[in-house]
Every structure is written in structure tokens, then in C-alpha cells.
Amino acid sequence: MSALIDNTNNTPPSTNYPCSNNPPAVSARSPHVIIAGAGLAGLFLGILLERASIPYEIYERSADIKPLGSIMCLSANILPAFEQLGLYEELLSLSKPLRDSGYMLTDKLEHIAQFESISPEVVGYERQLFPRPELHAMLLKRIPSDKIHFAKKVSSFVQNQNGVTVTFEDNTTTQGDILVGADGAHSAVRQQLYKTLEKERLLPTTDSTDMKKGYISLLGTTTALNPTKYPDVLKEDCQSYGIVGDGSNPYTWVTFTVPGNRICWNVVVQLGINAAADEQFDCSDWVTQQNKAMMDSIRHFKTTYGTMGDLFDATPLEGVSKVYFEDQLFETWNHERTVLIGDAAHKLLPSTGSGAVIAMQDAVVLANHLYDVKPTSFENIKKALSDFKEDRFDTVKDQHSQTHFAARLQFGHTLWERVLRHVLFNWVPRTLQMKQISRDSAYRPQANFLPQAPKRGTLDVIHQKPSKRLQKEKEEDEARKKSPI
């Protein structure tokens, strides 16, 4: 049902399908899903829909995707879904397990703390770290080439009781039953949806505020390093060090070893601490030259491997990215046939490493609700999208709060944040920390239309909600068997 319509002659796109005044259509077929955005959330949703036999197409605004070269961590909260989809073993081949959770040091390389971790015998999985582009490439190759379209940025869309029509900036259109905005923190789908809701006075005032920007991050991944100089790269598990600047230095820099004898690094500067930090914020022209200027100013920062300059020299400059750490939890995730997932619905600080996990959890839970849309009707679609938001919002809200707290511990340089760091690592009992980690690890949604991944670990996990559609089909099948012929 979703096919690109060329509208280069500037004639209005056909609206017979979405804008008909006929009664809402009801169909036995599965809904056709339009996914805007080929990031991790959009690709993971596509893979899930492929397995669910739900028709979909992905439209990516970029002509050539270049994911940030940042480090990523996947945990037990999403790894069971990878196992279901047959992706787990491949993920292990491109990652390193984080077993000791890493160390926090002063800028003089004095010990501050070791982050607590929970035994894999308890949670069932080790946390896996790897460069983000490699996960993206792994997921992208699982999407059939005829179901993904590049250089297709959403310009506008129209939705009503009979469908949704999306218009792209190249003046082509496509039609479907559901539009999923998986197009990132500055989502075009969200912007268009919110404009409409604002005109109708349906948008909460909190959703019209700008995202908060408290930090700037510079990140990259080295080429293969000499193990003689960097022996940590040969270790089976990931070696992680976070180094916090003193009171006059508003920077935090972190290193992680990854497969291929490489090191991922990340330098974070907290805004509002001093003039030097805020100068980085004022450099809005974040091109390669500006990145190099920032790198030159912090080359002398010490690491356990020498200086940051040593790592910079081993990193291709064109692969270095400079980004804001933005955050906002939006209240509005869905309206009629449109739904937002991932950063489009909730931009979280990366301090807990949970942003990608949460985005892919969104994809899992949304796929479960889309699978239950039967028959396909306007009312069933609206209910599915509303139920998705209801299922996810409180969990994401809790994670949003945790990322703020973790950011203060890892990247904070105010007096209060330094006191907080000292109290937590020296006075809070380990049992309380483990209790929180265990509680967080218990939530691990899976696709309920696929066989469940085997239970791993001794931790009691949150019960998986069964598929309403499969339950109903089972009941109908049992009723048919009992009825006389």
C-alpha cells in the first residue's frame, strides 16, 4: 500500500486514500507502517516488523548515513530481544564485555571510585560495548533493500480516519496506515505533529519548550593501536576509565577499549562553569576545523595511556564528532495514526548509556502493539498507539531521572556535584546500589509474537505481557475444535 508517488510537477498528491469522506475502512490485513528514520530505533523496529509479517517501509532523510562514532553499551534490558531475532551472537563478535564497570579517576589519575556491577550469573548477560557505527551497520544489513529509501526527509503529513499521507522534501509522497517518527532528537515528524496539535490547542505547554543543553561532547574512535604501547587493547573485556577535571577544569574524559585493538574516547565539557567551557558552546560552526581547535586545547589531559593528544593523533579527524548532550521527556508521543519512538519522544542524557537501549525497547513494545492490531481499523490503531505510550512512559520517565543523577556524578563540576560524588562513593552502602541495579535489570521486554529467549540468570524479571492477538486466536482455535462439525 505504501508506494512513492512522484509529485515533481507540483500537482497536489492524490488524497483519495487518506482524505476520503467514506466511513473508516476496516481490513483483515495488517497495517502498513511508514517509519521515518533509519537510526537504531527505526532499523530495530523494521527488523521486528519483518519477523511479524507486518508490511513497512523506512524513509531516511540522509543520502548516506554516518552514525556518530561513539561508544555504546547494551545490557540485559535489550539483549533478550537480540537473542530472539538471531542477532545476539553477531553482536558478541563485534563487542567487548564490560565486567568491572570501569574506574573513576581525578585528572591526576588518583582513584575516586570503581563503578559497581552486578554478576552476570544474576542478570544472565554481560554488558556489551562497541562503536555505535558497527551496531548500526549490523542492523541495516538486515533490512531488505527494497524497504528502505534514502534522501527522504519528511516535509509534512496528513492523517485522518482512513490513513496517512507523508510528503517528502523532494516532493514525493507515500501512503500508509501508521506513521512512526523514529527520526531523532530534532524529529521532523514531531515538529509537524506538534504544529498541528498546537493549532488545535491540544499540545501541552511543556512540549513547546526547547531541549535543555548542559554539556558538549567530543568523541571518536582510534585506528588499531600498538599493543606494546596500549596493552589494554588485548584484554578480552572492555577497560573503561573516566577522568574528572578539578575545580578549574570543567571537563570529563572517558576511554573504552573495543575490538580491533582500538580505543573509543569521549570528552565532555559542562556548560556554565567558566568562560572557557562556554566558548565551546558559542562555536556553532562545528566543522572539522572547530573540532581540531577543541582537541588542540585539551591535548595535555592525562589518561592511563599517556595523554589525550596521543589518542587524538591515532583518530581520523573526519571521524570525530562534536555534539550537544540534550535532554527532554516529551509528554505527547502519539496522535491518531502517528507515534514517536526513541529520541523523537524522549532525548536522554547519555550518562547511563541507556539511550539506545530505551529506543530499541520502544521498538519492541511498539511492535507488540502493532501485531495486536487486528482487524486494521482507525480505532484499533489509535488504541494500539495509546497503549504503547501508556506501557512505556513511566519506565522512560524513571530512566530520564536516573540519567540526570548519573550525569551529575560523572560530568558534574559544581561544588554540590562534587560533594554528591564523594558522598555516594564513600557513604552509600553497596547493598543499596545493587538493589537499584537489580531493579533496573528486571525490565527486559521481548517480542511477544516470537518464541521467548531462554531465561538466563537467577534474577526475577518482570513478566512479559502476552500477545492479545495470539491469545484470541488460540481461544478461537480451541472453540472450533470443541464445536460439532
Biggest beta sheet summary: 8 strands, mixed
CATH class of the largest domain: Alpha Beta
Number of domains: 2
Low-confidence stretches: 8-19, 280-286
Return Rg in Å.
Answer: 24 Å
Distance, first to last CA: 38 Å
Describe the overall structure.
The relative contact order is 0.16. The chain contains 14 helices and 23 strands. The strands form five sheets. The protein has an eight-stranded mixed β-sheet, with helices on both faces. It is of the alpha+beta class and 485 residues long. A hairpin with a 3-residue loop joins strand 11 and strand 12. About 4% of the residues have low confidence.
Fold topology:
Blueprint: E1 5-6, E2 33-36, H1 40-52, E3 56-59, E4 71-74, H2 79-84, H3 88-93, E5 96-98, E6 103-106, E7 111-114, H4 120-123, E8 127-131, H5 132-140, E9 148-149, E10 154-160, E11 163-168, E12 172-176, E13 178-181, H6 188-199, E14 212-221, E15 240-244, E16 251-258, E17 262-270, H7 275-282, H8 288-297, E18 302-303, E19 306-307, H9 308-313, E20 321-329, E21 334-335, E22 338-340, E23 346-347, H10 355-371, H11 378-411, H12 415-427, H13 430-441, H14 468-482
Parallel strand pairs: 2-3, 2-13, 3-9, 6-15, 13-22
Antiparallel strand pairs: 1-12, 4-8, 5-8, 6-7, 10-11, 11-12, 14-17, 14-20, 15-16, 16-17, 18-19, 20-23, 21-22
Helix pairs in contact: 1-5, 1-10, 10-11
Outline:
This protein has 14 helices and 23 strands.
Index terms:
14 helices, 23 strands, about 475 residues, FAD/NAD(P)-binding domain, FAD_mOase_fung, single chain, six-stranded mixed β-sheet, FAD, alpha+beta, flavoprotein, eight-stranded mixed β-sheet, D-Amino Acid Oxidase, Chain A, domain 2
